[in-house]
Amino acid sequence: MWGPSIIGFGSYHYKYASGHEGDAPLVGFSPRKAKISLYFAPGDTEREELLKEFGKHTTGKACVYINKMADIDVEVLKKLIKQSIKFLRETYPEE
Fold first, then answer.
1. Number of domains in the chain
2. How far apart (Å, rounded) are the C-alpha atoms in residues 81 and 47?
3. Which structural domain range is residue 47 located in?
C-alpha cells in the first residue's frame, strides 16, 4: 500500500534536479468511488501513443482514470504497465 488508498507494485527512487526526492510505485491503482485511478510513469511519451488505443479514459499528470474495466482494452493496459516499468527503470536505475 502506498498511503491509505493506492495499491502499488514494485518501487523506484526518484530525484529531481530541484533536489526533491522520494519513492513511488512502478505502477499502481486505486479503486476510488468516482473512477478507478491507474498510476503510470509521468513523462513517458510512449504512454500517450498507447492511450490512443486504450479506450474510454481521462488523464492527469501521472494518472489515467477509467470508469470500469469494460471501457478499456486489457491488452493495451498490459502494454501500458510494461512500458511504464521499462521507462522508470531506465530513467531511475537502481544504484
1. 1
2. 10
3. 7-91
